[in-house]
Specification:
The chain is of the alpha/beta class and 445 residues long. It has 16 helices and 17 strands. Strand 4 and strand 5 form a beta hairpin. The relative contact order is 0.12.
């Protein structure tokens, strides 16, 4: 076998990627930035410089993996490394090995449990959920002196847009995440001079794009999300500061429950029919009785609580439905409609921008209190399902539970509130009425 290999000359951004030494390195940000070529160069150089190193190159699906990496590397490394189709790997004379893998769903994660890699490349990382990223990260380990690295390539948009943006663009870290471990190297098609020289038509196709797609794919604008389901969502239109809800406004709840996330929204209907989301609850790993307890303690309110139909499906292990267990825990549920396409259409109607009553600016029939931070964060992160018109993807689950609760709430919306004729009497005796109810402290405004 040949001992040397001629690789393409990397341009400036690719050189930064090749030299980066932090635990997590993300590269890209726009289409045409030379991401896949950078992955192939880095993986090859690592294997040739470190004997016995184990490398994993990961894509969402196997066809993508084959077209973007396996076929190309198999051809370029002929005589340098041996490709074995039975385990999808390239082995170098010094014992280093590149494994090609895919992860189309969480079910595919099982093939990486118990495996050890020194380096992982997650190509098009925004196609993966944060859970998938976290699980794969645990495979990077080993009792050796090899560098332990996680390299990611990415463009704005996709199911993983939020977590990639949080870690590498916004640099917002949680728990034990160390900011010093994360590096982002931005590269666009304008930086990729070799591509511009060989295929100037590709630049023309990107520059011909308009609107949000142009900003995401050509300019690499992470404040946009290509494929964003609710592109009409705007903080300045749909988010308002908290205020005291008038006593005559009708209130109700909407929930979506899973062991991975329990979500509840409190809503109020104004006398003009606007829906105000004025309180939220999101918590992971709660059993039903615990979720019910938290929801009931959040507000001393006797109101209707809407939930999806699957709450009435029996649990084999207990012979009861989730709705029955909620009821036994003190929280009675009312079935909400669960047609996803129709439900999202209703949400879109409430998000539709309208002229403000004063004629200045815009408003909408859905208003969210600014301290409902999870709903505000998750709603614009929903991604369009390209296989089902009018629907969004059901992953990642960490953003879909609270948005599904919003859908159930708006589909089951109550009629407009009516200001009572005896409002002055009620307001005058409000404190006396609350005292007669036991003087319980109320969170709700």
């Amino acid at each position: 076998m040949a001992e040397t290999l001629k690789l393409p000359r990397p341009f400036a951004q690719q050189q930064q990627f090749l030299k980066a030494k932090t635990r997590y390195v993300a590269y890209g940000g726009a289409r045409g930035g030379g991401k896949s070529e950078a992955v192939r160069m880095k993986a090859t150089l690592l294997c040739m410089n470190y004997a016995g190193i184990k490398v994993l190159i990961l894509r969402k699906t196997f066809p993508e993996l084959r077209e973007n990496h396996i076929s190309i590397m198999q051809l370029k490394l002929a005589g340098v490394a041996v490709y074995r189709d039975h385990d999808k790997s390239l082995t170098f004379p010094n014992g280093s090995r590149i494994k090609f893998g895919y992860c189309d769903s969480d079910a595919d994660l099982s093939q990486y449990q118990g495996q050890e890699y020194d380096v992982v490349f997650m190509d098009e990382a925004t196609h993966f959920t944060e859970h998938q990223f976290t699980v794969i990260d645990t495979s990077i380990r080993g009792a050796n002196d090899f560098p332990k690295r996680f390299y990611l390539t990415c463009n704005p948009g996709g199911v993983g847009h939020a977590w990639v943006k949080r870690l590498f663009i916004d640099r917002e870290y949680r728990g034990k995440e160390n900011p010093d471990n994360y590096t982002f190297i931005r590269s666009t098609v304008y930086d990729n001079k070799p591509l511009l020289k060989k295929d100037p038509g590709y630049l023309d196709s990107l520059e011909s794009l308009t609107g949000d797609l142009r900003r995401a794919w050509l300019e690499g604008d992470w404040d946009l999300c290509a494929g964003q389901f609710f592109a009409e969502f705007r903080r300045e239109i749909h988010v308002c500061e908290p205020f005291e809800i008038p006593s005559w406004w009708r209130k109700y709840r909407a929930i979506d429950y899973g062991l991975d996330m329990a979500a509840c929204l409190w809503m109020a209907v104004s006398d003009n029919g606007e829906i105000y989301v004025y309180h939220e609850f999101c918590e992971k790993n709660l059993i039903i009785s615990e979720a019910a307890k938290y929801i009931l303690e959040a507000e001393d309110l006797n109101c209707i609580t809407y939930a999806p139909p699957d709450m009435w499906g029996r649990l084999q292990e207990r012979g009861k439905t989730r709705a029955e267990i909620f009821h036994e825990s003190g929280l009675s549920l009312t079935r909400a409609g669960n047609d996803r396409v129709q439900g999202w259409a209703v949400v879109r109607e409430y998000l539709k921008p309208l002229s403000s009553p004063d004629g200045e600016g815009q408003t909408a029939r859905l208003q969210i209190f600014s301290d409902c931070t999870e709903l505000i964060r998750c709603l614009p992160l929903l991604v369009t399902d390209t296989k089902k018109m009018g629907d969004c993807l059901t992953q990642p689950h960490e953003i879909t539970h609270i948005t599904d609760a919003l859908r159930y709430g708006l589909v089951s919306r109550l009629s407009s509130s009516k200001e009572p004729e005896n409002k002055n009497f009620l307001q005058k005796h409000k404190e006396k009425i609350l005292k007669s109810l036991g003087g319980k402290k109320r969170i709700i405004r």
